[in-house]
Specification:
152 residues, alpha+beta, 6-stranded mixed sheet, 5 helices, globular
């Protein structure tokens, strides 16, 4: 059985562009994240896509191009998640560390919905958003659709 990731993002023409796995683990080491990605693809658990994002409460890890490769490889980008996720918790007394995995998944999905619907440019993007352009991810998913994945 093919298990889709927690979240998938399609381009406006409905091509799968991004597979997202959400894990409620903090301070994960580089070896752990690289091995987790490899295991997910080696066991055919996730569909192939140009981009793979591992979202943790404290970090985002993005692989591109070879996102579906079954070799152990470090992410192309490692990003602090706080500037992206903290705004979604402003009206609560919670921190990212307090969230359950399903709550974190809702935060990630909300953020991705905002990204695909945003009118960003490289010139207007905040410094913490530059990797979205450098990686090509923003262009791939802009005006696309974000869905919670289901098993198939």
């Amino acid at each position: 059985m093919l298990k889709l990731a927690d979240i998938v993002v399609h381009s406006p023409d409905d091509n799968l562009q991004l597979v997202v796995e959400v894990k409620n683990k903090t301070e994960a080491g580089a070896a752990w994240v690289a091995q987790l990605r490899r295991n997910l693809f080696a066991h055919s658990i996730l569909p192939q896509s140009p981009f793979f994002l591992l979202a943790l409460p404290d970090r985002l890890y993005l692989w591109k191009d070879s996102a579906s490769s079954t070799t152990v490889m470090p992410p192309d980008y490692e990003i602090d998640s706080l500037p992206f996720f903290a705004p979604y918790l402003m009206d609560t007394n919670l921190s990212l560390d307090d969230l359950s995995e399903s709550s974190l998944e809702l935060v990630v999905k909300s953020w991705l919905n905002d990204v695909v619907n945003a009118d960003l440019t490289e010139q207007t993007a905040a410094s913490h958003e530059k990797w979205l352009f450098d990686s090509g991810l923003y262009r791939a998913i802009k005006n696309g659709s974000v869905k919670s994945a289901v098993s198939s």
